[in-house]
Structures are given as C-alpha cells and as structure tokens.
Amino acid sequence: MAATMDNNTAVAGMGGPLLGNAEFEFLRTFVYEHCGISLGEHKRQLVQGRLLRRLRALQLRDFAAYCDVLRRDPHGELGELASAISTNVTAFFRESHHFDLLTNELLPRWISEKKSGGRLRLWSAGCATGEEPYTLAMVLAEALEKHGGNVDAKILATDLSPQALETARKGIYPIERLEGVSAERRRRWFLRGEGEYEQFACVHPRLRELVSILPLNLLHEWPMQGPFDAIFCRNVVIYFDKPTKQRLFQRYAGLLPEGGYLFLGHSESMYGLNDSFDLIGRTVYRKGSA
Q: Per residue in 116-164, pLDDT tens?
C-alpha cells in the first residue's frame, strides 16, 4: 500500500505512524535551536525510527502530538529527544593516546605545579554513559598517588541525556564494556558484582569521589566559572554546524587559561574555526597567549 510522507498514517511493516513533512521541519528547527544539531533530509528515517519509542513511552498517537509536547514544555522533553536522535558511542580508554599524554606529561606537571594546595580541574563535556570521566578518574587517582601533594583535584562530567547520566551516576557496567581496561586496573578500580550482578562491575568509590556528574546543555548558559586545566569534548561537535562549533570553541577558550588543553574526537578538527588554540598532537589543542 503506497503512502506519502505528508500524513501520519500507519504503514504496513513500519509498526507506527509516519513522520510528516510539517512535523519533521518543526523537529529540525527545534533540535537545531535547542541542541545545535543539524538534521538533514537524509536523517528523516532515523529520526522517525528513534522517536517512535518516545511516542510509545508517552502514549502519543502520532508525531503531531509529540511536537505539541515539545511546544508546551520544550525543556522537559529536550534531554529525551537529544538522547533519541544522537548516538552515544563511548568506551573506557577510547583514543588511548589522550590518556597517555595525561599520564606521562600533563598530570605530573600539573600536580607538581599545584603541590602546595592548588586546584586541578578537568571537564568531560558530553560524558555520555560515564566511561570517559571514569577513565579520567583512574589516571588522575594514579597520578595523585604517584606524585603526591596537597592538590584539590576534581572532574566535572556533563551531558544532556537523562538516560546516559543515570548510567554514569550508577557506575555499573557489563563486564564486556571493560574491554579497554587493563587487568591490573580492573582489579584496582572495579568491584565485581555478585548474584544477579555477576556479569557486571561497579566503579570504585575512590573514582566516584573525583567525579561530579551533572546535566548540561552545551548551547545554554553554563553555571561553572572555570578555569579548567583541560576540557574533553570528544565526538560531540560532529553533530554541530560550523557557526555552532565556532561559538562553542570560543566559550571553551574562555574557560581555559593560557596553556590549557582541549581534546577533540578522532574525526573532529578545529581547523579554520578558532585561532585561540594550537594543534600539538592528534586532536589535542593547547590554548595560546592572547
């Protein structure tokens, strides 16, 4: 049976209503304004498929009703919408060269400079389900033990997705998700579950002490003042268009001191977007002098 994309009638095999043109255009505009994510026409099928779950969860008849929910309470549903249309791909020690740089060079230097009671701050911007900030916590805890000193060290982890933040706060992961963690670090920084949790592991309380997990929309106001020694924003800006990236990088520059570091994902670049940073390694940028 043929059907156009201009209605919300069910189609055999689709298992739900269609995403009509008017609703898709509304969602494209809404997502761009609130999340900075640019949805091309080629994303229509993806958006339809993923948002069908939200329609079922909210017991809505069609996408027009879902758009009405966004109009009535844009911020109440924003996190769920962002979770649905973006892909949270993450892993412990993903892009391990970044953590090698921290372990071998940056953390020893920072701890040495701040030994007399200084403040060390790292930010995982777009922390997803928590693997990145807990990886940062592992290398930070090990560096503090090795190099000592009275350093006030903390990691801020933020994301827009409520589901991702819930997983990060629990800090409980299937054993197979620890594939990138060495056997020694597994023994040191994870507690093996028992009974029904036998196939899961929980992060060590020491790592939880170092990490603060909070909801944050990168496009909205930021409550923190900084400065941060390093900001990790990896595999986040791939969803943004050029003007949004430029604004975001400028805001990051405002929270980093001269010599502060910004880490991007393997497929991301700051080329032609900001002149406050110098590329010093594989997707590693250092803020220069003003």
A: 789 999 999 999 999 999 999 999 999 999 998 789 999 999 998 888 9
Architecture category of domain 21-85 in CATH: Orthogonal Bundle (1.10)
For residue 70, give the H/E element and its range: helix 63-72
Cα–Cα distance measured from residue 218 to residue 236, given in angstroms and rounded to the nearest whole number: 10
CATH, range 96-287: 3.40.50.150
Domain boundaries along the sequence of the chain: 21-85, 96-287
User: What residues act catalytically?
Assistant: 50, 159
For residues 70 and 77, is the Cβ–Cβ distance under 8 A? yes
Of the pLDDT bands very low, low, confident and very high (cuts 50, 70, 90), residue 12 is: very low
Query: 3-state SS of the chain: helix, strand, coil percent to 5?
Result: 45, 20, 35
- Residues marked as binding for S-adenosyl-L-methionine? 88, 90, 94, 132, 159, 217-218, 234-235
Tell me, what's the pLDDT at 117?
81
Sign of CA dihedral 217, 219, 221, 227: positive
The tokens for 75 are: 């911020």
What's the whole-number average pLDDT of the chain?
90
Beta strands 230-233 and 261-264: pairing type? parallel
Mean pLDDT of 268-284: 94
Using alpha carbons only, how large is the chain's radius of gyration in Å? 21
Residue list, annotated binding site: 88, 90, 94, 132, 159, 217-218, 234-235
In which band, very low, low, confident or very high, does the pLDDT at 40 lie, cut at 50, 70 and 90? confident
Q: What is the layout of strands, in order, in the sheet containing 200-203?
A: 172-174, 200-203, 190-192
DSSP label at residue 102: I
